[in-house]
Structure formats: structure tokens, C-alpha cells
Amino acid sequence: MLAGLTLTLPVDLAVTAAALLTTRAPRPVPAADRRTVLVSGGKMTKALQLARSFSAAGHRVVLVEKAAYRFTGHRFSRAVDAFHVVPDPRDPGYAQALLEVVRAEGVDLYVPVCSPVASEHDAAAAEVLAGHCEVLSLDAGTVRTLDDKHAFTALAASLGLSVPDTHRVTDAQQVLDFDFGRSPRPYVLKSIAYDPVHRLDLTPLPRPTRAETEAFVAGKPISADNPWILQEFVTGTEVCTHSTIRDGEVTVWCCCPSSAFQVNYAQVDRPRIREWATRFAAALGGTGQVSLDFIEAEDGTPYAIECNPRTHSAITMFHDHPGLADAYLHARDVPLEPRPGSRPTYWTYHELWRALSAPRTTAARWRVVRAGTDAVFDRADPLPYLVLHHVQIPLLLLRSLRSRGAWSRIDFNIGKLVQPAGD
Description:
This protein is an alpha/beta fold.
């Protein structure tokens, strides 16, 4: 992988140089009510998108990230006015470090762009930041509930919203003793805690024989300290959504086809899914960001299978929408959606890898590139693209090589290596 990224470096250098030499970056006019906005999760494309959107609307942007990703390419974006390194969100001093940044930079609004392990810590930090800036996050208790796949489905069901049959398991024996005949559908096992490796395994249960089921379950780290869920497997079309919510009202909405490893986003209209998400937001009644994953059954019923109380990478679909910043800052009568006809987003190196690893898909990958736009590359702001692929990721690969660390995938979208027990 290091050799491959080295081979493409001259091409990306040439593209970046051409963009810098031929494109005059517009100077945003300061907004009438100019805010200083703090955005976390600096390594991720969704943080870059929000930074660009706030900057284009005339606001000042401060980006933060932990030390392991201090060389994120996004810190070199023209949209970023200041960059700070903060502790890992699990560090006891994390909230205090955010407060120091807020005070030093005069931050008015904190928009957490969380990794899964950071969601609750960012929500809890709101208590420390109270009185210093607004924090666009649901409260810590609600975030904890939504991040728990069993608690979330129980909450949604209590509101009369459609979810699959879901059961919490803390021991492998509970799976073996489960009455699978209660539903005509099979079931799947999912870790409640974020698991970057096992989360892609949707093996249907029960297996053809009890021995096969036992062998499958034995490979899962299920325990009282690490509970999982056994969830009814609804077949249909997988759809992912993002909602920015203010006082229970959705101000930003996007919805697109999904997959287990999602790096392509194109807006679709799904009224029943939007109605589900709107009702859920009203029931929550707070302010924050919520990403819901659905399975749309053959009869059109949307079943919510998961809720992630944080920014979705689908926010990149607003790459050409001038109203995103305002929709984050203020209430709206109608949610902001991606522009009709806006080009879908993709990540060039993911498309390249797919074409190289499955040559028969090359034509399909080329169609994706022709019809869409790279989520990171911007002619007026090309440095994040160059540094992401030739500094940020190579440094992570070198660090993994030195430590002999295991990793299963490079995710250019979230700017990291997917590793066991990763963040």
C-alpha cells in the first residue's frame, strides 16, 4: 500500500499544483452574525465538509483532532482558520482541553463530528462547555441510549415506530437457546459496542445445524461486559440518513442507498423513512445530529436497524449547497436537502481500489467517477486531498508497520486504518 501511494504521488502533485495555479479561491464575505465554530473529528471527510460549509458562509472555523491524527490533511484546508490537538475523547482531560480551545479561540458553537467511541464523551463535554459556547449535541443520557442498539430499538418500538425484533444477549448460550421459530425471518448477531471488524458480519442465524451455530457463536466475544443483540434480519433495500435537529425539529435532511462499507452517497426521496425520522426527532425533542440506518422492506415499510447519534458522512452531499451552515445554526420550517441534480460523492482511491481488485467492475467504477465528485478534492482547496493520501495515511501505515499492528482496510473517508478494537 505504501508503494502504491508512492506511485500515485506524482499524479496527485501535478493535479494539486494545477489547481493551485489555475484556480482562484473565492474569499468568503464575513457573515453578518459571524460565528467561530469548533469542529472535532478533524481526520474525517465529514468534518472537512462542515468546515468548508461554515467558512463559505462567512464563519470562522477551528478544527481539532487527537494526536494520533495530528497530520490530517484537513488541517491544511483554506476553510480552517485554526487547528488544535486535543486528548483522546476517553481521556479524563478531554472536556477541559476543549474548554481551553473554546476560550482561546472565542468559540460560539461546538459541532462534534464524533467517532463512535467519542459520541458520549462529546455529549458529556457539553456540561463543561455550558456558558462558554453552544454545543450541538443531544444530552449524554440520550446519546448513550441511541448508541445502544437494544435500547434504541426498545425506545423506537415504544413510540410506535417500526423496528426489527431485537433481543439483548450477554452469553453465547442465550443464542443457542433462542426460539428462532418466533419469526419467519432469520436473525443476525451485532455487537452493541462499536466493533470495526465484526460489524460487517451479517451471517444469518440459525445455521443449518446446531453444531454450525455453536461454532459461529463461539467466535463472537459475547459477555456481560460486552453485550450483543440478536436481531431479526429484514430483507430489502438498505438506506442511511442524516438529520440535524434543533429542539426536536429536523433542519438538515439527507437520505441515500447504503451498504455495509459505505463510500458512495446519492440523495433519494423516501417519504416514509423521512416521516419515521421526523417523528423520532420530535420525540427526542433535543438538539444534535442523528444518523439512522433503515431496511426498506418489500412492502415499503421502513425498519430502523441502527441509530448513530452523530454526523453521517452523507453530509458530503451538501458540497455545493450554500445553505448548510445556516441550517446548522438556525431553525427552519422545511429541512434543508441536497440540491436537486447535485453530483453524488465518492472517494477516488476507494473507486481505484475497487477497479484494481475486481477488474470486471472497472466500467462501473468509471461511471461513478464521471457522474459524481470526489468528496475531498476541491480545485479551490486541493491541499487536503494531497496530504490525506500522501502524508496522513502513509504515516498511519508506517506506524502500523513499526508496531506490527493488524488492520483490515484503509478508510479514506474517515481518514484512518480500520483495526480491531479501533476508534
